[in-house]
């Protein structure tokens, strides 16, 4: 639609994304207000009908709202439960890391990527963060971004639908927190606390500040008994639309057609990683006696925002799923740079002629 420009194109794009959320809510899809916009916007971009890139500065709106909502669930009783589950979380994180390394070794050469690229493509983090780490280590970030995007989209689409298929489609199609009244003052307090925490965590250079900042502050307020009320369902749905539309807008037909081998390998490796992590998580749940859905969501190689939302929609304890992912984040994020540097150094010594000098 060349006649539309800038803000008008983005507004129409987001409106169509909302329509996708409404449609998927109507048919009873899991995570309708994220999966619907993801499917609709990806189709618009791949088909060329309305290719729009949702600005990265809009994405924190969705992350902050979801993180604040999850943080309010961290009651004192929940904190005690999380301490008891700490060994299971550590074991799950370690097994997930082993799966990622195995997938990187198995699929990197097939896709034409180096092992370092394959590791950054598979590790659960955002495409932006993975690309930044690739550039820091003089690795071509393009295959990493493509693979990370496909992995996130695949997990968001496959895992909720697969769990619904196994457990049965829920009878209710109500949006979580649909019964919460629309209180402008409470929404304002939540927004000020959430976005203020995000900016503080950014200044402190803490990883994933858009999620960890609001989550930490809201969890502390809830645990102390002074937490505000949750967001109403309408605001939570709007946050999911932003996240789904942002992810869908990253798809482009030229990238998918030009890098056919990379795309095919990324899809196969992402599905393999998801199946491997889910199988190990199910085994850990069986041994520990935990609900298998909780552990599978906690071990899933997807974003913490998306998996926490999935847990909420499946009426599972989102705080436990979030804690699984936070454990993995705090273990992975400080160690990813040196693991990538070690892999890249080994590959450079083994194949000096193949070194990628991408700045």
UniProtKB/TrEMBL annotation:
Keywords: Membrane, Transmembrane, Transmembrane helix
Span of the signal peptide: none
Parts of the chain that traverse the membrane: 33-52, 82-107, 144-165, 185-204, 233-251, 263-286, 326-346
InterPro entries in alphabetical order: AbrB_dup, AbrB_fam
A Pfam cross-reference name: AbrB
PANTHER family the UniProt entry points to: REGULATOR ABRB-RELATED
Protein name per Swiss-Prot or TrEMBL: AbrB family transcriptional regulator
Organism: Plastorhodobacter daqingensis
Phylogenetic placement of the source organism: Bacteria, Pseudomonadati, Pseudomonadota, Alphaproteobacteria, Rhodobacterales
């Amino acid at each position: 639609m060349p006649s539309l420009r800038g803000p008008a194109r983005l507004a129409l794009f987001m409106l169509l994304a909302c329509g996708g959320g409404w449609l998927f809510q109507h048919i009873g899809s899991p995570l309708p207000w994220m999966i619907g916009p993801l499917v609709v916007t990806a189709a618009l971009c791949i088909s060329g009908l309305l290719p729009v890139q949702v600005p990265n500065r809009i994405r924190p709106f969705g992350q902050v709202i979801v993180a604040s909502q999850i943080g309010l669930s961290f009651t004192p009783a929940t904190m005690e439960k999380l301490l008891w589950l700490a060994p299971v979380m550590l074991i799950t994180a370690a097994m997930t890391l082993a799966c990622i390394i195995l997938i990187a070794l198995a699929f990197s050469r097939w896709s034409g990527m180096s092992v370092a690229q394959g590791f950054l493509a598979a590790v659960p983090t955002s495409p932006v963060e993975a690309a930044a780490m690739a550039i820091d280590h003089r690795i071509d970030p393009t295959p990493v971004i493509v693979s990370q995007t496909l992995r996130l989209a695949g997990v968001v689409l496959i895992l909720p639908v697969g769990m619904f298929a196994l457990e049965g489609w829920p009878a209710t199609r109500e949006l979580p927190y649909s019964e919460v009244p629309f209180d402008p003052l409470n929404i304002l307090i939540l927004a000020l606390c959430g976005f203020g925490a995000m900016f503080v965590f950014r200044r402190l250079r803490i990883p994933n500040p858009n999620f960890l900042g609001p989550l930490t502050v809201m969890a502390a307020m809830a645990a102390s008994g002074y937490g505000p009320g949750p967001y109403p369902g309408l605001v939570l749905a709007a946050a999911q639309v932003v996240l789904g539309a942002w992810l869908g807008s990253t798809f482009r037909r030229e990238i998918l057609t030009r890098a056919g081998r990379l795309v095919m390998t990324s899809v196969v490796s992402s599905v393999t990683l998801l199946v491997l992590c889910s199988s190990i998580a199910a085994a850990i749940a069986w041994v520990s006696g935990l609900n298998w859905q909780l552990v599978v969501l906690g071990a899933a190689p997807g974003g913490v925002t998306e998996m926490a939302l999935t847990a909420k929609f499946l009426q599972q304890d989102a705080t436990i799923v979030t804690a699984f992912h936070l454990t993995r984040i705090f273990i992975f994020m400080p160690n990813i740079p040196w693991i990538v540097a070690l892999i890249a150094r080994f590959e450079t010594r083994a194949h000096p002629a193949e070194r990628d000098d991408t700045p």
